[in-house]
Amino acid sequence: MAEQPAEERGGFGSTQSTMVVLQALSEYLIRKPPPADLSLDVDVRLRGRKEIRYHFNPENSYAARSSRVVTYYNQLHEVDEKMPCKDFELKVNIEESSEKPPADVEKSYQITIKVRALGPRDVRMVVLDISLPTGFTPENSDLEMLSNSVDHYINDFKIVDNLSDRGSLIIHLFKVSHKEPEILIFRLQQRFKVGLLQPSSVTAYEYYNPDHRCTHTYTPREDREELTQICKDNVCRCTQGKVCTSLQHGVRSCDCCVPKSESESFLNKERETFACTTLHHGCRDDLNLQQGSQFIYMLGKDTWVERWPTPAECSSSPELQAKCKSLNDTAEELSVNACRL
């Protein structure tokens, strides 16, 4: 029989091929006499359990031995984060810790994760995939305590820092109750600061059914005062712009093509009037951007976001009709003639 490479778990692609290999190995072992000098010591070491030892010699080499152990699954499935929650209720909260951070830590945060199964029974073998913000690492002592405590809140954890520059924390839960949420609390240490923290996520899913999952995003709260200016050496520049009125068609076309020295700005609708203010990550909660609405988003150094009303809104009032016509004229001019300035 031609040599065929085995799969990761020992199979050979199909049941028929595997049975042929087993039959060939059995026939080989029957015809081959056992070695006279057979002596093999096997030590099995598991965390939290007594060491298991086996000794094999010619007299007992064919005697079967077995021991029950907990299997840890570290091969993770790819999960589509755009799918809605299914079979899990997930809540994530992060706030600055009241404890004084270590000397090598900028800030210490405490993250609380609550996960509960939504079905009629408990769910076994659940994976928590926690993406970490840039510059953050989990407190290893907290995770060790959750893993080694009497209640055994988590079965295993693994810090994966080679997936991206942000890193991930993988937590394995043997069971998630459907009656009350499983609560995990541990610290995240901010080792160094970055300009703007991007949102991170926590995903809970079944290992054997990765489509049964739920994802929740979180972002450590930043100091607004630290975002009002950017300093380099002895020179500081304000990151917040001044309030301005709604852009007209000609002004908007010029602003699309001529760079400005002021900071980025956006236009948002407030009480039927359009106001201009700064756009940065720290004030994203104040923008009131609505899902399903359309926005012009100009990528560049002098970026602004301008709300594009829906067709129904455009026909609701003469003021919005003029606004929509101005936006359409600007978009058509830029798409046809590009920037001519």
UniProtKB/TrEMBL annotation:
Coiled-coil portions: none
SUPFAM superfamilies: Alpha-macroglobulin receptor domain, TIMP-like
Record GO cellular component, one term: extracellular region
Protein name: Alpha-macroglobulin receptor-binding domain-containing protein
Domain of life: Eukaryota
SMART domains: A2M_recep
Alpha-macroglobulin receptor-binding domain mapped to chain residues: 123-218
Pfam name, any one: A2M_recep
Organism phylogeny: Eukaryota, Metazoa, Chordata, Craniata, Vertebrata
